[in-house]
Design a protein that fits this description.
The chain is mostly helical and 224 residues long. The protein has three helices and no strands. The chain has a single domain, classed as Helix Hairpins, CATH 1.10.287. The protein is rod-shaped, with a radius of gyration of 61 Å. It starts with 8 loop residues before the first helix and ends in a 5-residue tail after the last helix.
Length: 224
């Protein structure tokens, strides 16, 4: 709002009337009834003009204060708007970084899950191999037991038939050899079974570790 012009009291004031000349003694009777302006009227007019100038000055000061306040408010609002815009830009950057971190974390979780699935498949395969080895071991034990039984029977026959001692001894030697081979096969199968169990334990430990990692990453919230 433009400032209102302040009137000049010197220009607006009414010129001070000069004291009236003394009336001539021979003035007409009709002029005697008109009163001459007195000093009180002039003083009242001057006071009124001074009061008007004061009101105008106060009004100008008030308007100037309002304009200054409005300008300060506009500047403050502009600064606040700039700050809000800067905060919005920073928030967008943080959101972008959070999305990138979330995508990276999701990829890691997917990779870990795929590795865990592979470990589960390897564990199932190892369990199947162990089951096969266990069946072979049981079969070998049965064969060894049969050889042991046959050897005992051969010993009994050799005792009963002294004449067939050499033949029985030969059979016993053959059976002993077969028994030793069966025991060697059983020991080899036992070693393979122990190795398979160790591999299964290793795979199980890796699987448990991956499952803990997946659980921890699933509990971790995403950033802003």
């Amino acid at each position: 709002m433009p400032d209102s012009p302040v009137p000049n009291p010197a220009k607006t004031a009414t010129p001070v009337a000069r004291p009236p000349k003394a009336e001539a003694r021979d003035s007409s009777p009709g002029d005697a009834g008109v009163p001459a302006p007195g000093p009180a009227r002039r003083s009242a007019l001057i006071i009124a003009l001074i009061a008007l100038c004061a009101v105008l000055l106060i009004s100008v000061f008030v308007l100037w204060s309002e304009v200054s306040t409005r300008d300060a408010t506009i500047v403050a609002n502009k600064n606040h708007a700039d700050q809000v815009q800067a905060d919005a830009v920073l928030l967008r950057v943080q959101i972008g970084e959070a999305k990138t971190a979330s995508a990276t974390l999701q990829k890691k979780m997917d990779d870990t899950k795929a590795e865990s699935d592979q470990l589960k498949a390897d564990l199932d395969k190892a369990n199947a191999i162990i089951a096969g080895l266990q069946a072979q071991l049981d079969k070998t034990r049965v064969i060894a037991t049969d050889f042991q039984t046959q050897m005992e029977e051969a010993k009994v026959v050799s005792i009963k038939h002294q004449g067939e001692v050499e033949n029985a001894v030969a059979q016993v030697a053959v059976m002993q050899t077969q028994l030793n081979e069966a025991r060697a096969d059983a020991a080899q199968l036992q070693t393979q079974l122990a190795d398979s169990k160790a591999q299964i334990a290793d795979l199980q430990a890796k699987l448990d570790k991956d499952e803990k990692v997946i659980a921890q990453r699933q509990k971790t919230p995403a950033k802003n």
